[in-house]
Amino acid sequence: MYLLPIIPLCVIFCVGTTLSTPVPEYEKFLENPRYLNYDELTNLFRKLETENTGLVKLHTIGRSVKNRELWALEINSNVNNRTLLTPMFKYVANMHGDEAIGRQLMVYLAEYLIYNYGKVERVTRLMNTTDIFLMPSMNPDGFENSEEGQCESKDRYVGRENENHVDLNRDFPDQFEPQRAGTLLSGRQPETIALMTWIISRPFVLSGNLHGGAVVASYPFDDTSAHRTCCVESRSPDHDLFKKLALTYAENHQLMKKGDACSNENFDKGITNGAYWYEVKGGMQDFNYIHSNCFEVTFELSCCKFPFAKELPQEWKNNKEALLSFMEAVHWGVKGLVRTEGGDAVLDGDVVVVGLGHNVTTSNRGEYWRMLLPGKYEMYAVAYGFLPSERVTVVVEEGKTTIQNFTLKHEPVEQGNFKDLRSVDTDPFDEYGFVIHDNSIFKHHNYDELTRYLQFYHTMYPNITKLHSIGKSVQGRELWVFVISNTPNEHVAGKPEFKYIGNMHGNEVVGREMLLYLIKYLCERYGIDERITKLLNTTRIHLLPSMNPDGYEISKEGDASSLIGRNNVNGYDLNRNFPDQYWTNKYNEIIQPETQAVMDWTLSEPFVLSTNLHNGALVANYPFDDTASGSTIENLSPDDRVFKYLAHTYSNAHRTMHDGVPCPMFPKEHFQGGITNGAKWYSVTGGMQDWNYLVAGCMALTIEIGCYKYPYAKDLPLYWMDNKEALVTFIEQVHRGVSGFVVSTIGRPIQNAEIIVEGINHVVRTAKYGDYWRILLPGNYNITVAARGYESYTSNVTIPESGYVQYNVTLMKDDPLHWASAYDFGIGENQYHPKYHTNQDIYSKMAYLENKYPNAASFKSGEDYISMAVHSLIITDQHVVDDDKKFHIGVIGNLFATQPIGREIGIYLARHLLEGYHIGDFKIMKILKNTVVHVIPVIDKAFEQIWGDYEKEALGNVKPDKYLCNNISSDFKQVGEQLVTSRVSNHQDTKSVANALKHLLLEQKFDFILNIEGGSSGVLCPNTKDQIQLYKKIAEQYLSVLKYPPVCSGPAKGTDELLTEYLYREYNAPMLTAKVSCCEYPAIGNIPFIWRDNLDAIMKVISTTLTGVEGVIQNVLGEPMLNATISVTGMELQFDVTKRLAHFKILLLPGQYVLEIACHNYQPETLHVEVEEEKVLSLKVILKRGEEEVYGGTVVHPTNEQESVTDGSLREPFKGSVKTGIKGYYSIPEFKKVMSHYDALHLTLNDIFRLYQGLLRSSSSKRQSYDFRKQLYNFLRFEWKIWNSCGARQVHA
Questions:
Q1: Known catalytic residue: 300?
Q2: Is the pTM of this model over 0.70?
């Protein structure tokens, strides 16, 4: 008998597609059945959401009396953005806390839908076409008070009722009861208020309310105007439709359809009209139908209210088909859009079915759904301010949805006496933009009044608000935060977080009041104003009206500019109390409770945009707020273009700020366009906006919204009108730029992935659901997404003129071995088993590398005084034997004992260079033929004495989610400090190592040094103050290829500008310090990945030695001009030739240069050269003799003769010794003057000896002659190299 219908069905499927064997339905949730308590249910729903991003979204629509969340799980294939005209369906269970079957069935249904999506065709279709909401428990407090196995309610209905002993299914407004005083919400339970606001604010189409204690489907109405106990039907206008809906469930329930599942009850076909069974006043199903578009039926599922858990699998079997069939019924009838002639959505329009006394209204997107039984209907649409549409005949077919759209024309404005009257009534808002007119709000609210105000609006709008404290002030006042959104209780995937903070300075009060008015404005207009509704549906807005409530309480109304109440009660200015990128001082060395609370709160949410509201000026102030020097000069952030745009956005939307008119108290303070850079205005250390940007990744401004700090209350309406539009417009900017999700290849969200925009040195990170937001202006951007443990991905992203684009990224799991093979010549030691080595371990590895690569490596460890103290590994192509013709660069680490990262990275680099050389890598072969790389991993040997009790070794095969820092400090002077001080270190070897390093710098004359450290970000380089800025450009090249620059906060540690400048000025040693990690002492597991992040940048810097100019300088006879010097126009340094072949080699970046070659007694030569990328230009320079005079046996230029003879300083008495750059050796002021003078004459040392003899003859005593002679010898022996005398030859003792 079943064969005939099956055959055509098979034909249809086989023709359409080839089907595999049906996949068994997922129902593992039936194993080990039990009821989940509140915490277990919460954890399960959060897990379902986290693991099924894109399909599942967890909402809380309010809280119970005992503050438990009323969870609703949304399930839809497009859950983050409901597709237009997708109907919304809901099941609500456990309204009576002891009726538990429905609660657990909702858990089962959720798992059934989610895990069978894409596998079971019926489930997939249902989720693709329906927006499903499942609320397991409307009464979680009652459930926790109930007891498994109890088939009837306890005494006094404990468990059935909520915590306040109210039956929630008797607490809704009733159509036949007199209206209570106040609003519909007045006097109702928190759970009821939450459901009412949820039902009214969402366009639900169909709903089921799941109960226990009987087995029947009950449909509206639930009571009558006659107030009978039972047995009289109370029919709704859609009586037949409700009966069909009830039958749809009952007929598919194995017991309900019989009608006699429970003793003493008999329901025809398992359904009943509610009032006919027994009257229920204040029931939820009638409220759904009367006050919203939603049709609801109540289903009693079991005779026993709270059966034992072992019964749950059978209950699932009884209800499964019924639950699915009832959900599918949401598609019965007609749906469509109501639009204006211009295509705009018509909000709150009525769709009328002629002959049925129940209309449905349109959503804020102009959608409607009208459930109807099959048949023909006459329909039309109407809305306030519009003419009714034409009536149309609509045919509804069984099992199909009919689409019928309506277009409305604006009602023409009547002419005559009533014209003005009609226009007055069109705006539902008062003159301040509020729905409910209330001038009493325009007052200053003290702490208690503010608290009551916030609690009131949270109670009135529980489904779109959340009120919580983020901490307490010094005096114990709560720091209240008010959250407004359609999902206020927690972060929702894909929804950005925004915050306003007011009253940071206690006597600057306008921001505090503006945020209170903004709460009223947003709450009242939600669901009425399309703009505000969209904003709250797409944004989670956090408002902290008062960060300094203690200071407010002592402030005085009418105070225009004093400091009373500005600080917290401990006397700290909270806007100087945050950690600063440059300074730790008395204002921020002790973090205050209010500051700490805001910091913790800010880091707990993925805030995208923030503003701090102040008073005392009228300007939008953007980062940075201070400078490294403390000067009041402009200091721009990497996102300066965006910050200027944001500042202009607020200023232009403010009624007067953009005019830039100065405040009366500061008549000379003009701000063009109403904006300013903070540091340019005045320097603020420890400011909140810079901390937000640098540490929390949140774009933040400080906006001064009024000239007077504490104006009189009568002026507050004016302030509100000035700022109202600006406050809303600024929030909307959170949606500017690019946002999206970062997930793994299996769809798991990746938290803390870095979003890196090329050319902007600022990183934002993904939140816990892999979601991110990056505010950018329209344009094209190369965006790299990188995450610890994953391969990075880079793509070009275009942000359109409309201002926003979504960009989702999928990352592949990271494979260290693959990376090593691709980028590091397969060197496993640079990836696996990283270790902080002892000094001796490092020296052993350097010796090993010398033995392994004898043609490219030489380990220097005791051949002379320098190498005894400072061991180095010299790496170069030793087949090219003349090192004088090569560039020399140093790669150093551990200049400070507290900076150990360079120790390990130095060894990694040595391995990389030598293995690359060994296998014939073209680039490295080219570098080492041209360059000598001096790798010095250990300078300060004291690290292993202070390295602490941390892990020294790790596997290295798993990239950490984030970089971890070990604590490290020293109580002794480190080598880096010893270099710039005359005070003797109290630590062993520090002085000798520092002196040896100084001698190394003098003797080696490095073209540059790359110093590798942590403790900050960026690259330090010498401030050469010349036009070419060679070292700054090399530093910029490092940063330009750095894919994942560390973004650090707080003062830099280790090498600083002072040390960098000292080495450059005193020793001609240009040192670039690459800060490769925010940690001074990174955890060992981070080392391989810091190496990976920085390898390209390090090699980019080393590769600059492939570019420059070299040559020899000879006279016309081909003799080397050993006294020649070379200057590059626009560079500070002057370059010598080698003292054997008069060869020179100068590192230059690509570009055009002018070289000036000079030597005494020869005509100078000027050469114009062009240097190309990765090419060293070779020159041969021939100098010709010029005119000359002889003076005192020394060849000098005539123009200098008189000056040299008349230098009276030669006859001044000897004033004693002074210290030079190298500790332990001395010179005298007179001699330095002479040397600096005669240096310009290119004197030889023989000439200097003649000068020395003349000085001896003029000395005033034998003792002074002896001192002079001794110190001059020391100078000539050890310090002659710091003078640029063209013809200097080494002095032999």
A1: yes
A2: no
